Amino acid sequence: MSTESAPAPQGNAAEEQRPRFAVSALTTNLREYGLIIALIVIMLFFQFTTSGTLFKPVNLSNLVQQNSFIIVMALGMLLVIVAGHIDLSVGSVAGFIGALAANMMVIWQLGPLSNPLVVAIVCLIVGGLIGAAQGYWIAYHRIPSFIVTLAGMLIFRGICQALLGGGSSVGPLPDDFKMLSSGFIPDVIGPLTLIPPTVNAAGKTIMGSGLTLHMTTVVLGLIAVLAFAYFGVRTRRKRERHGYEAEPFTLFVVKTLVASALALFLVYEFASYRGLPVVLLVMGVLISLFVFVTKRMTIGRRIYAMGGNAKAAQLSGINTERLTLLVFVNMGVLSALGGLIIAARLGQAVPAAGLGSELDVIAAVFIGGASAMGGVGQVIGAVVGGFIMGVMNNGMSIMGVNVDWQQVVKGLVLLGAVIFDVYNKNKA
Amino acid sequence: MTTILEMRDITKTFPGVKALSNVNLSVEEGEIHAVVGENGAGKSTLMKVLSGVYPAGTYDGQIIFQGQECQFKGIQDSEHKGIVIIHQELALVPMLSIAENIFLGNEHAKFGVIDWDANEARTGALLKKVGLKEDPKTLITNIGVGKQQLVEIAKALSKDVKLLILDEPTASLSEKDSQALLDLLLEFKRQGMTSILISHKLNEINRVADKVTVIRDGRTIETLAKKDISEDRIITSMVGRSLDDRYPPREPKIGEVVFEVKNWSVYHPLHAERQVIKGIDINVRKGEVVGIAGLMGAGRTEFAMSLFGRSYGRRISGEVLLKGKPVDVSSVSKAVQHGIAYVTEDRKTYGLNLIDHIKHNITLANLGGVSRHGVIDDLRELSIANDYRKKTNIRASSVYQMTGNLSGGNQQKVVLSKWLFADPEVLILDEPTRGIDVGAKYEIYTIIARLASEGRAIVVISSEMPELLGISDRIYVMNEGRMVGEMPAADASQEKIMRAIVRGEGKAA
Q: Which of A184, A416, B158, B370 could form a disulfide with A274 if both were Cys (CB 3.0 to 4.6 A apart)?
């Protein structure tokens, strides 16, 4: 007996392929950029409802500084979810690491070990060890990640509170450490004043008047945009040289121009305030790294294969246990970094740091189009998902929407995004 | 005696395959009627038509049960009439008790509140009937397969069964349990029940059947009465088909021994005391295609998977030699490094990432071949994927098509491509043409022939004997975890293979 499924459409290759390729490139690209378009629409919406506050340079800097820890942790969570798992402990681990860092720097007086940089490195290592401890049970003993990390969520929140001696907070943290969250990159080139600030009768400059650009930020931004365009063109050339169809040229040009314009707009915004926030730089480097790992490296490919079909991956010679362990180690390190960013922003460690943030992180990944079944999801999706959550938080707060209702709206957006995804998939 | 069941001119087609054509089956009341045929002959399909798994309208022909023409829309309809089928794979819920399983979906209850006393009392009575001495509260997971089979039968009896269909009931039972089950069938017969027994095992059929209907290639070949039943007759009838040129011609160039397995033993992963593979020795030469014949449940897949990085079983012992040197194949990656590849029989579960496209699937087993320092060379990967797509003739719109949307034959070609790109010296193919239409089969055979001519050592596991005879140079016959025969393909015939299997039957305890 045979259960042959319907034969594949034998679409007679040669003549049919070219036009269909163009159409499919457009539709898949539209789907990929749909999320970014959604983010832009949401931003414009709040720009309008907050009468222009959202895009004020100072607010954009705030927005980045408030949400960076969610996005940093979402990078790790994306890999966890693509691998077919979940991690509920990230908020508690972040809280615990914040408490650990604060104690090391303020309370324990460890001499050279209290140096912020040393503390940060120790904390990242501790985060990795926590990830390894949880990942070990998940990978080698096949205990469901939901349960292991639920336990971790309780355990590390408890240790966090114990370290802070019950309900109190530990601080203030050294200024060097706070730079991680609230600092801006130094202007090594020097500012460029385009419009001198207005001086009032008392001889003092009026805040926010005039226009001075943070030139280091401008130069860095221009370099990034040029590099983006250069690598885009180079990849295209290479594909064409090898005789492969690249995406339609007009689409490529439009895409590159739009992306560059958006990037330059943001650069201008930051440059006209105090420059590039340090945490944005950290985030940018991490995002690029994770895009590269997931798109171009064998380890990324293996994680997707494992999430798509663990048995097939294993029978293809992939060490799925070790890979699962690594995914959780990575998550632990990024949770620790998230914890450091939170502590640095608050200037102290508090018992509630990171409380509930695991849900924001997971929501960001799912809004970004990852599948709860594993095997599907993009880094850029998770990042944009994180920003969508962040912009909604920020915009609704400025509008004065009650926190209770903010949650309702975020919940609806999450549900809507996933329903949209599933609907699209079924249609395709 | 009256005829209780008549199936007339049953024809059932799947897309591209005619699974049954004009099959006739007539069963008398109170008899045990055996249905025999090779794997894939259409026995199970016929039973699925009868029990309503394939509802009326999806097949042609008539089913007349107790003088009435029946149009079953689902399994409930046929059970309502008293036709109950016990499938080869038991359908019991392991963590529920015997009583809960027997009355699952059919509980004695009032307003949704279950009357446990009534359920357990009735279960007790049913268990007595099938001769199973177990507490109705015992969990299914705590009793052996033989007893589980009896629970299935008790469940069938609870439904007021008139016609009991057993699909290879003894396939996973020990000799002793099998005998007990057959005795039970004879006991039911004395009480006047009618049964249909689907089986490969000719000694069992000899023992209990009143009549035998032989099915081959989706057609009824003949129905034999008790006095005509003999092993020879049944075997001839089962396999008697002509071999036309369904296999590409090849000129084997066989070299020295490349791959050797010595005294390989494996125990069941869950039932620690059950030995699945019992001291197997095989060898394969360069450029040779070696077939492993056997019936389902003979342990062929278990053997292959345990060789391939211990992907099956526990307490594995024995030795694997490549070109005379012992090699460590204790993990899949080690096996792959030594140049061994295994193409699974179940491509959807074990072979492919169905939610990813062809390109990524092809390179998965050899990512090192398209990367440098862990960074994948996108263009190289693309050109390799296109290369294999051409070589194995994968029909798809592009290498970016999801493998989940391909037909079975094309999926199989993707899995083959994956392992070809890993460039193995020894390639083990498990049921390489299962669920594939005839045209694609020929293409797969061509690929196999080409691989052999490139000097690789190839092992093909197949339940289709003509296929093995058509493509192999040498054939091993496996049964119940042992090799029970070895013959050059030139001397082999389906009769010889079948005889080796039947003779080997019953040797094991």
A: A184
Give the C-alpha separation, B159 to B79, whole Å.
Answer: 7
Same domain for A163 and A290: yes
Same domain, A259 and A309: no
Evaluate whether residue B82 is within a structural domain: yes
A228 and chain B in contact, CB less than 8 A: no
- Cα–Cα dist B314/B420, whole Å: 29
Residue A12 confidence (pLDDT) above 50: no
For A297-353, the pLDDT digits (tens) are 999 999 999 999 999 999 999 999 999 999 999 999 999 999 999 999 999 999 999
Would you say the C-alpha torsion B66, B67, B68, B71 has a positive or negative sign? positive
Strand B257-267 to B314-322 pairing: antiparallel
Q: Count of domains in chain A? A: 2
Q: Residue A346's closest CA among A65, A36, A26?
A: A65
Q: Is residue A189 in a domain?
A: no
Closest listed residue to residue B474, CA positions, set B283, B255, B263: B283
- Cα distance between residue B60 and residue B25, in whole Å: 14
Q: State the burial class of residue A282 (Cβ atoms within 10 Å of its Cβ: 0-12, 13-18, 19+).
A: middle
A324 and A417 part of one domain: yes
Confirm if B342 and B305 have CB atoms less than 8 A apart.
Answer: yes
Could you tell me if A91 and A175 lie in one domain? yes
> CB contact, 8 Å: A17 with chain B?
yes
Its domain, for residue A369, covers 34-183+277-427
Place of tokens 């089956």: B25
Rounded to a whole number of angstroms, the CA Rg of chain B reads 25
Of chain A, the percentage scoring pLDDT greater than 70 comes to 90
Rounded distance, CA B411 to CA B345, Å?
Answer: 12
Does residue B316 lie in a domain region?
no
DSSP B425: S
CATH number, domain of A402, equals 1.10.3470
Per-residue pLDDT band at A364 (split at 50, 70, 90):
very high
Q: Are both A66 and A157 inside the same structural domain? A: yes
B397 to chain A nearest CA, in Å? 7
The first and second tokens of residue A19, run together, are: 């036009």
* Integer Cα distance of A182 and B218 in angstroms: 76
**Which 3 state secondary structure label does DSSP give B234?**
helix
pLDDT at B245 over 90: no
Q: Is the ipTM of this complex over 0.85?
A: no
CA distance B96 to chain A (A): 22
Q: Are A262 and A403 members of one domain? A: no
Q: What is the pLDDT of residue A256?
A: 86
- Domains in chain B, number: 1
pTM here is 0.78
What's CA B11's distance to the chain center, in Å?
Answer: 23
Minimal Cα–Cα distance from B81 to chain A, Å? 26
Of the candidates A226, A260, A276, which is a domain's last residue? Answer: A276
Instruction: Report the length, in residues, of chain A.
Output: 428
Position A31 confidence tier, pLDDT thresholds 50, 70, 90: low
How big is the A-B interface in CB pairs under 8 Å?
133
- Chain A contact set for B437 (CB, 8 A): 2, 4, 7
Q: Are residues A256 and A348 in the same domain?
A: no
Give yes or no for B106 touching A (CB within 8 A): no
Overall average pLDDT of the B387-407 stretch: 86
pLDDT at B169: 84
A271 and A283 share one domain: no
Q: Which domain holds residue B172?
A: 3-239
pLDDT at A238: 83
Residues in chain B: 509
Chain B residue nearest residue A6, CA to CA:
B15
List the single best residue of B23, B364, B423 to mutate versus A (max A Cβ within 10 A). Answer: B364
Contact B451, B252 (CB under 8 A): no
